Amino acid sequence: MRIKDPEYPAAIEAAVEILRERARRGQTITYGEMSAELAAQGFDSIPPHRGVMT
Predict the structure, then answer these.
(1) Number of neighbours of residue 50 by Cβ within 10 angstroms
(2) CA pair distance 26, 39, nearest whole angstrom
(3) How many CB atoms lie within 10 A of CB 29?
């Protein structure tokens, strides 16, 4: 997913909500887990260790 991709703002919003939920529970998250959670929400082009995730 590229920054100019029209889905980018929605992916950022989803990632922030995932992070907030983990923080509320006092849990950490790996890049791989974040990528998997985003994929489960339909954002399947966000690899865990390259691109916009980094």
Answers:
(1) 9
(2) 23
(3) 15
Summarised one tens digit per residue, pLDDT across range 6-30 is 788 898 999 999 999 999 999 999 9
From CA 20, how far away is CA 15, in angstroms rounded? 9
Burial of 38 (0-12, 13-18, 19+ CB in 10 A): buried
Instruction: Give CA–CA dist 18/5, Å, rounded.
Output: 20
pTM value surpassing 0.70: yes
Tokens of 32: 């791989």
Phi, psi of 30 (to 5 degrees): -90, 165
Q: At 11, which helix (H) or strand (E)?
A: helix 8-24
